[in-house]
Structure formats: C-alpha cells, structure tokens
Design a protein that fits this description.
The chain is an alpha+beta fold. Among the domains are: about 130 residues, Orthogonal Bundle (Arc Repressor Mutant, subunit A), CATH 1.10.10.10; about 110 residues, no CATH class; about 130 residues, TolB, N-terminal domain (Rossmann fold, 3-Layer(aba) Sandwich), CATH 3.40.50. Strands 12, 13, 14, 15, 16 and 17 form a six-stranded mixed sheet that branches. Strands 1-2-3-4 form a four-stranded antiparallel sheet. The longest helix has about 35 residues. The termini are far apart. About 10% of the residues have low confidence.
Length: about 775
C-alpha cells in the first residue's frame, strides 16, 4: 500500500484521513469505519482501474476471511462518507458481479493532516471550485458584508457626532479615506487567513466550531484591516497629504474689517415680559437710539440691521468679532400696566467690563424722555466732543408722534424689514396706514410708504407703484421737509425713475440734516455710478463703510460698483466681507458667485450659488446658477434653473431672456422666441418708468436682436453706450448685437473694448452665441490675451 495515501489524500474537494478514520468536506466531517478505510485505500492505490471483489476482500479482511455482505457494507459506508450515489456515482463506480472502480485520482501533494478544508460541490475537483464558491468557503463574502455595515455605521455616527463635538474638518476626511482604504485590505485578509501550503485550509473544527471561527475570522479581518488602513492613511497624510476642501473664503473668512476708533453698537434689547407690545417698544427704542447716536459727529455707529444679527446680551467677544466696534450698549425693557422699565449697560467690547449702567422707571408716556436720556448717557460715557453749535441739533428730531401712533409706525417698520415680497410690502403698508389714520400728519409714515412703493415696483414692474410712491413722498415732504428719511425716500424714488440729478439733490439734503446717514451715502454712490462719476461713487460708498464698519450693506453696494466697473477681484473681496459679517445673506453669496464666475473660478462659484439657494431660493439665485451651467455647456441644467427663476418671478424680463438664450442654444427655437417676446414686453414696460436705465437698455437690445429686430436693437444698444460708456457690459452687448446683425468686424471691435475694460475673457470664450467667431484669429487674440 502506498504510505503517502495512509497520511491522507484528497478526492476532489474532500480530504480523506485514513489514520483518523474521517472524511471532511464543506458539510463537515464524516466518520469512516476501519474496514471501510482499508477498502478505500485499496481502491485509491489503483485509481481508475477495476478492483475485483476478491482483491478487496483479501486486502481488507485477509484470504478467506471476509464476506460479500461485509464488503457491500463497507462500500456503503464509503459512499455515505463521500456523499456519493450508487445510481449517479462521482467517486465510486460499481461494476456488477465484477468489482469497483475509483473514478477520482487521489491527490497527496501538500497534505498536512493536522488541517482540513471546507469542501466545494462534490462534482468539482479542487482546482475547479468556482470563484463564488471559493469566496463563500473562505468567508470573504460575509467579511465584506460585515465590513460595509461597519463602515456605514462609522460614517453615520461621525456625521452626527463630529459636528457636535466640534472635531476639526479633517477628521471626517480621515475617517472616509480610512474606510475606503480598509476595504481591499479586509478582502485580502479574509482570503489569505485560509491559505496554507498552497491550499486554502483552516484548523480542524466541528461544523459548529467552524461557524464560530468564521465569525471570529470575520471580526479579526475587519478590525485588523481598519488598523492597517489607519496606519497607512496617517503615513500618507503626513507625507503627501489627504484631499482638502478648496479654500473657499466665502465659507470662513479670516480677513475682517478693522475696528474703527469711536465705533459703537446698540444690541437688541431683551424683552423681559415677553409681550408683543414690549417687543415693539424695545425694537423701536433701539432704532431711535441708533438713529440719534449716528448723528453725533465723530461717533461711528453700527447699523440696526447689523446689530440685530446678534441676540440680546451676546458675549463681548462675539460683539467685537461680528460688529467690529469698541463699545456697545445692551439693555432690557419691561412694561407693567402703565409703567415702563428700561435698563441699559454700556460695555467695552475688548474687556467685557461695564463702562456705565442705568435704569429708568417711567410712565409709558415717558418713552421719548427715556430715549433722549439713553442717548445723552451714551454720548457722555464715550466722551465724544460735540461742537457746541451742533449738540442740540444732532440730538433733536422733528416733533415726535404720540405713543399710539409710534407703536403702529414701528410695526410698519418691522414688517418692511422682512424679506422683500408683495405680501410683506402690503402688510407694512397697512401698518403705516393705521398710524396715519390716528395721526394724518406723521411724515415718517408717508416716507416709509414711499420706499415700499419703490420696492414694490422693482418686484412686480407695475407702474401704479411709482404713482403711489410719488404721492406718498410728496405728502411727506409737505408735512416735514426737515426729516432726513423723507429726503432719503425721495432720492430713491428719483433714482428708480431715472431722475439721477434730482436724486443727488435729495440725498444731499438728507445729509445736511443727518451728516452720518449711511443710506444717503449709499444712495449717492449708486447715483454717481449711473451718472458715470465713478470716483465720486466709490468715495461715497467707502464713506458709508467708514461710518458703519460692521454693516454689510455698504460693502455689498461697493461690490456692485466694482463689479460693474469690471474690477471683479476687488468686487469678490467686498462680497467676502459681506459673507463674513452676515453668513445668512443670500444676495451676498449670489453676488460672490457672479464675481467668481467672471474671474473663471467656477469651482468657487458653484458652492456660492448653491449656498444662496439653500438660504433663500430666489429668482436671482436660480438665474445666476443657470448662467453658470449655461457657460459650462450643461444646457439641461441651465434650462431647469432658469425655468425655476421665471417661476419665482414671472414678470422679470431678464429671467425670461436668460431662459430664452438657453432654449435657443439647446435647439428649442420656438420656445426661445416665446420667452424673448414675453421679455420684450416686460422690458419695454420697465422703460416707461426709467428711460435712463442703461442695464434695461442692454437687455432690451439683445432681446430685439434675438427677435430679428436689428434696427430696434441698434438703437437700444447705442443708447446704453451713451448712458454707460465705461461699463464693460455695454460694449459686450454691442458686440453681440453686431454679430447677430452679421457684422463680425464690428462685433470683434466691440468685444475687444469690453475685454480691455475688464469683461471676463473666459466667459467670452465660453459664450455659445459667439461660436461663429471661434475660428477667427482676431477673436482668439482677444480671449487668449493676458
């Protein structure tokens, strides 16, 4: 007998161990009686050959000692252990009345009898096991499932816990890379933990113990792979570096405006009794104190909108970082019956120490006296030197309204500060009307109505709003020409209707009444830009920033001016200030995205636009996002975004024109014409109110060109060039109109001027409407120039 066979051999995927009297396969281990082992060894010595019954009897029992019944029983035991079948044999074939034949050659190479292998299907040889079956046997599949579940749980827990524990941003990246890197490692471990002497083997175990061991092996594979991956990722991070999010300064801006000397803020006052009436009085008191303090020469006061981004009683560190002021006033208001109690504290933002504190207990009718005392206390505490001839003027308003009128007026002011919409405008108008029903001579309420009507016209393009605005401003001016807000409202009305010189006069008058009126300086900046007096425009906008260094509005208006001047990098910097000061300002993110897009930073523009939509999904946000997709060539996404913009504001001519462009380039010419015709009617209606708006003229010139109205297009763009000769957009539109009319030479000349003035060469190269010029070397020279 072959001694190698006695040490053990394989029959296909089954391991036969004669010395132990057992056969092991995927179903577990089967016992084999000693005589059956001897018969099997005899057959294995002559594989594929007929072994007669007499030979088997003599070999296993001895000459003349065995019986046919004993041999048949041994053969049955062998078949049972091998899982073989008499009718369809795989291992052992019966040759009737002659003997038996072993159909599978025994394999003895690499046998280690201290080990065993989980078998495969009995119809396959060891080298013929399918990949899936092999993966199952080695426990790879169950390890993969266990790893994926563990990785998913780790990421989910990290997503919730890391933010709450204020872990650094790289922690999430590290964990994500770790679980990705660990995946192939755990597959390799689960495979090779079963590899011995060139064969896939595991320690000898019972089926129950084998299942337990597979669980243990899976656990070890997952844990060890994560450990190895952690070490590998750490080494990679320290030597090369993990991927990092782009340094998008719009999310977290390190550069902040400086803290200006003699700068001051008034925080929202705490409403101690929680009543709606007290809230109105508290907010009104803060507004009035801010207004009166802003008129003090030498004192820089943070705006109301800026201060109200903080909660009452915010920490001094947060106030200093957010508002950029040296000192601030905080307080509380409580109304009980006919009594009002106000407590105020003046605090140094750097140290957090109280400079002064005061409480007031007065009848409700003493509200205005409290306001005056708080103002005087503040001025005295900050020791600002007031010129003797201006002290009384700076601390005096027009005749105050009665307390009931004031309360109604304050509700109108609060409603007017809600997000701009026709519904909110109407709510504010009703409160102003209620105040005027009690006191028809309250000029401030008429001024508030005037501003609301101007805003309503910009929202819905209805000329009736302008008529009502003119009436309200006229009444306010007749009632109290010495109130600065009256002239500020009138200036905005004049600017909206194209009467820019009259607007300048009104803003100047407001400044003569209140030399620290930020709204008036901003208004002058906007008007001077439209009058092409760019140096004066920039100077006034920077003056507004100097007065309220923590107010995001002046930074935003300066950004608009710089953007319109083709100074996109500088505009982006101003918009970044706005985002840093007011992280929930949707318009700031939209404007920042537009500036980034102009300088070719689409990687920064996209998250800015998405952030704007997350904050407030407005028409402008979707229009800007649609333009980015348009330039990137993703027309389906562009059409979707522009359609959403039109849905949000169906009366906006520019939203419809942008949608028309995307539809036209996408090949939907009929739908594009429909949008351009609607845009034409809306733009022409807007011109009825302001015929001196160069931007409407630019838009209308392109709309005419796309509707094949070349004569009207040329007239409109020429007028836009007269009104805004220094705006790169006017020359860019001039080039588009020339090309649409078939004059490529004139188009190239205009586009060259636009590029020299600062229009983005990258966007010019990406503009689908300029595709006819792509092969012209002159166009290449324009867009490729540094």
């Amino acid at each position: 007998m072959n001694s190698d066979l006695l040490q053990g051999f394989y029959l296909g995927a089954l391991l036969v161990e004669p010395l132990k009297g057992q056969v092991t396969g995927k179903a577990g281990t089967e016992h084999l009686p000693p005589k059956a082992v001897e018969v099997l060894l005899c057959l294995a010595s002559e594989p594929g050959e007929l072994v007669t019954r007499e030979h088997l009897l003599n070999d296993a029992w001895g000459v003349g000692l065995g019986s046919q019944e004993a041999l048949s029983h041994a053969i049955s035991e062998i078949r049972r252990a091998l899982g073989d079948h008499h009718d369809d044999p795989v291992f052992l074939q019966t040759l009737p009345k002659r003997g038996y034949r072993l159909l599978v050659d025994p394999a003895t190479e690499g046998i280690n009898t201290s080990t065993l292998i989980p078998g495969a299907k009995h119809t396959a040889g060891l080298t013929e096991i399918t990949l899936i079956e092999n993966l199952k046997q080695r426990g790879v599949l169950e390890t993969v499932i266990a790893y994926l579940v563990t990785a998913w749980l780790l990421i989910q827990v990290a997503d919730i816990v890391f933010d709450q524990l204020h872990f650094p941003a790289w922690a999430g990246t590290f964990l994500t890379v770790l679980v990705i890197a660990g995946f192939p490692i755990t597959i390799l471990l689960s495979w090779f933990l079963e590899f011995r002497d060139g064969r896939a083997i595991v320690h000898e175990l019972s089926p129950a113990d084998a299942r337990k061991r597979r669980f243990s092996r899976t656990y070890i594979s997952v844990v060890v792979s994560l450990g190895i991956a952690g070490i590998a990722v750490y080494v990679y991070d320290t030597s090369i570096g993990l991927p990092q999010a782009p340094d998008i300064t719009l999310i977290e801006l390190a550069k902040r405006p400086p803290i200006v000397q003699n700068s001051f803020a008034v925080l929202p006052f705490l409403n101690l009794d929680g009543s709606d009436e007290t809230s109105v009085f508290a907010n009104g008191l803060v507004d009035d104190v801010i207004t009166r303090l802003s008129r003090v020469p030498g004192l820089r006061v943070s705006s109301r909108g800026d201060s109200f981004t903080l909660a009452p009683n915010s920490s001094s560190q947060k106030v200093r970082e957010r508002l950029r002021v040296e000192m601030y006033l905080e307080g509380s208001v409580e109304i009980a019956g006919d009594k009002i109690r106000v407590t105020v504290q003046l605090i140094d933002s750097e140290t957090g120490f109280h400079v002064s504190s005061r409480s007031f207990d007065r009848p409700r009718e003493g509200f205005f006296e409290i306001r005056d005392e708080i103002t005087n206390l503040t001025v005295a505490s900050v020791r600002v030197a007031l010129p003797p001839d201006t002290r009384s003027a700076t601390l005096r308003d027009g005749a105050p309204a009665t307390l009931d009128v004031y309360k109604l007026y304050r509700r109108g002011v609060e409603a007017s500060r809600l997000p701009l919409s026709i519904d909110n405008i109407n709510v504010a108008l009703k409160w102003y009307d209620s105040a005027l029903a009690v006191d028809a001579g309250y000029a401030a309420a008429y001024a508030g109505k005037c501003e609301l009507y101007v805003a309503g016209f910009a929202e819905v393009d209805d000329q009736a709003y302008i008529v009502q605005a003119e009436s309200a401003c006229g009444t306010a001016l007749d009632l109290n020409p010495n109130l600065d807000v009256v002239h500020t409202s009138l200036g905005r009305l004049y600017a909206a209707t194209g009467r820019y010189e009259d607007a300048e006069v009104s803003f100047r008058r407001a400044l003569r009444i209140d030399g620290s009126s930020v709204a008036s300086f901003i208004g002058l900046g906007d008007v001077y830009r439209l009058l092409n007096r760019h140096d004066e425009a920039e100077a006034n906008l920077r003056m507004a920033i100097g007065l309220h260094p923590g107010d995001p509005i002046p930074y935003n208006r300066l950004g608009v001016f710089l953007f319109r001047s083709g100074r996109y990098d500088e505009a982006a910097e101003q918009y970044q200030y706005v985002v840093a000061l007011q992280p929930t300002n949707m318009n700031a993110y939209a404007n920042l995205g537009a500036a980034f897009m102009q300088i070719g930073r689409f990687d920064l523009a996209a998250p800015a636009y998405q952030k704007a939509i997350e904050i407030d999904p407005t028409k402008n946000a979707y229009s800007n996002l649609g333009l980015m997709y348009y330039y990137l060539g993703d027309l389906d996404a562009a059409i979707t975004s522009h359609s959403k913009a039109v849905e949000l504001n169906p009366n906006d001519h520019l939203a419809r024109s942008n949608l028309g462009d995307a539809l036209w380039i996408a090949g939907h010419e009929a739908l594009a014409h429909q949008e351009f015709r609607a845009a034409e009617a809306m733009a022409e209606s807007a011109l009825q109110i302001n015929r001196n708006d160069p931007f409407i003229m630019m838009d209308l010139s392109w709309i005419y060109a796309m509707l094949a109205k070349q004569k009207e297009a040329r007239k409109a763009i020429n007028r836009a060039l007269e009104l805004a000769p220094d705006d790169p957009y006017s020359h860019y539109y001039n080039g588009l109109v020339h090309l649409q009319a078939g004059d490529a030479d004139a188009a190239l000349a205009a586009l060259k001027i636009a590029a020299e003035m600062g229009y983005s060469r990258l966007l010019m190269a990406a503009e689908p409407h300029l595709a006819l010029l792509k092969n012209d070397v002159r166009f290449s020279n324009i867009v490729d120039a540094l």
